[in-house]
């Protein structure tokens, strides 16, 4: 099925911004209206969005193109005074992993693609903090927007102090989607197909449902993730649905899918994983072992080569940096930063479509890997491992791969994590790696 839903596409955004004194991130997010948006990336301004001036949605295999068309229509004309580039109106959102996502639990509120132009946006940039108000449709006139800007500026000045962040809610129940025996059989079956030459690599994931002792404070979790994972991409997506409590999809992912500005493209090959050591010396030893490990290097190179090939049709040059290790609080990954110069102007969503899913989260060959994932995983990935990010009026944008993530509702959450399976994969080691990749989110939920 394919559909395009847009309440205001084609209507003209009116947007005004003003520099404000810096309010606390947690206080702003707590006071935000649904749908709330967070985007925070290394070397980018952090954005907290409140409400929606416009929403665009799409389903099906053409969801990337549909969103691109809707974004172009929305941004085709406008009355925008941003004051600074970081405060300009942008659409924030993401996509489902599979073209035919079924949106079963816990993904009922998540269509194939959904982007929001926040009504009120607080932007923490290098040159200060900015408040932006944007309207689209009947109330999109400059006087109304300016009055609203004044009102919100006052409101932000007198936000209540959020106090110390809440303790994690505690995990009182957990259910795995995949029992260990089933996991072993699935990984062994994938390894056999790889040995038979039917597949090169497939990324298999698990989901973990947890019951929480208390309602989850999403603002506190996102703030803490920022402290623990400063080099990661933090995101929060909250579609407004009619069916039951508000769902929140959030995470802190180390993996950039694509950044586009002008004709310069930046992306990452990130695949191949080991743990953290107890001491700096042990960390170094683990990192060196990872860099020398044939299985992990093979798994990684499949990703780096594919990304280079996927970018080649668009690019006048593609450059891969040296393979290195990205060290995070809970794991270490093999990492190759890749840059490209485009031969012609492109919209970031064309690159998102070309790159998703990279073999870091899908596999090779892509079609066979995707059908293996569909046939093997007893749950829908929903938006897990799919692109999340933003796009602006120029068609520039920044997208990450939604890993180290969970979808929560009040006092429950579902976590997702996966691993690349190649010829030498051992099911028990891959199982352990999945558990390690739950840690960033689980650490925010469990009481120590
Ligand atoms: C699939 C995940 O991570 C991906 C798989 C990796 C691997 O197999 O080594 C490493 C980083 C990510 O590209 C996840 O975190 O869920």
UniProtKB/TrEMBL annotation:
GO biological process, one term: L-tryptophan biosynthetic process
Chorismate-utilising enzyme C-terminal domain location: 181-437
Catalytic activity: chorismate = isochorismate
EC number: 5.4.4.2
Originating organism: Halopelagius longus
Any one Pfam family match given in the protein's UniProt record, by short name: Chorismate_bind
Keywords: Isomerase
Keyword Isomerase: yes
Region (Disordered): 154-180
Protein name: isochorismate synthase
NCBIfam families: isochor_syn
Domain of life of the organism encoding this protein: Archaea
Family (UniProt): Belongs to the isochorismate synthase family.
InterPro entries, alphabetized: ADC_synthase, Chorismate_C, IsoChor_synthase
PANTHER family registered for this protein in UniProt: ISOCHORISMATE SYNTHASE ENTC
Gene Ontology molecular function, alphabetical: isochorismate synthase activity
């Amino acid at each position: 099925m394919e559909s395009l839903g847009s309440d205001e596409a084609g209507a003209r955004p009116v947007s005004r911004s003003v520099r404000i004194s810096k309010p606390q991130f947690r206080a702003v997010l707590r006071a935000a209206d649904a749908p709330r948006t967070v985007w925070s990336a290394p070397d980018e301004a952090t954005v907290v969005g409140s409400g929606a001036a416009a929403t665009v949605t799409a389903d099906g295999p053409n969801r990337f193109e549909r969103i691109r068309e809707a974004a172009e229509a929305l941004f085709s004309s406008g009355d925008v005074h941003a004051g600074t580039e970081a405060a300009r109106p942008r659409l924030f959102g993401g996509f489902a992993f599979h073209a035919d996502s079924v949106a079963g639990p816990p993904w009922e509120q998540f269509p194939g693609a959904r982007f929001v132009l926040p009504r009120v946006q607080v932007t923490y940039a290098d040159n200060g903090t900015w408040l932006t108000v944007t309207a689209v449709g009947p109330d999109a006139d400059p006087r109304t927007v300016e009055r609203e800007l004044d009102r919100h500026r006052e409101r932000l000045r007198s936000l209540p102090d959020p106090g110390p962040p809440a303790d994690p809610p505690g995990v009182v129940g957990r259910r795995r989607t995949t029992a260990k025996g089933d996991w072993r059989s699935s990984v062994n079956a994938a390894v056999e197909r790889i040995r038979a030459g039917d597949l090169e690599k497939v990324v298999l994931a698990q989901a973990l449902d947890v019951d929480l002792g208390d309602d989850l404070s999403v603002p506190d979790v996102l703030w803490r993730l920022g402290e623990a994972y400063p080099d990661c991409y933090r995101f929060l997506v909250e579609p407004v649905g009619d069916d039951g409590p508000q769902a929140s999809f959030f995470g802190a992912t180390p993996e950039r899918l694509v950044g586009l500005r002008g004709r310069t493209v930046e992306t990452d090959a990130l695949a191949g994983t080991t743990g953290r050591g107890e001491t700096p010396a042990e960390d170094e030893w683990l990192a060196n072992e990872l860099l020398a490990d044939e299985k992990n290097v093979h798994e990684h190179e499949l990703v780096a080569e594919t990304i280079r090939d996927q970018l080649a049709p668009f690019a006048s040059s593609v450059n891969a940096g040296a393979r290195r290790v990205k060290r995070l609080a809970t794991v270490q990954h093999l990492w190759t930063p890749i840059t490209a110069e485009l031969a012609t102007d492109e919209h970031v969503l064309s690159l998102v479509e070309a790159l998703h899913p990279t073999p870091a989260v899908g596999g090779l060959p892509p079609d066979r890997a995707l059908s293996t994932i569909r046939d093997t995983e007893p749950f829908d990935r929903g938006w897990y491992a799919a692109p999340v990010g933003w796009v602006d009026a120029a068609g520039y944008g920044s997208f990450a791969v939604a890993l180290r993530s969970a979808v929560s509702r009040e006092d429950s959450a579902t976590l997702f994590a996966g691993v690349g399976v190649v010829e030498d994969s051992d099911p028990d080691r891959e199982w352990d790696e999945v558990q390690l990749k739950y840690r960033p989110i689980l650490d925010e939920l469990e009481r120590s």
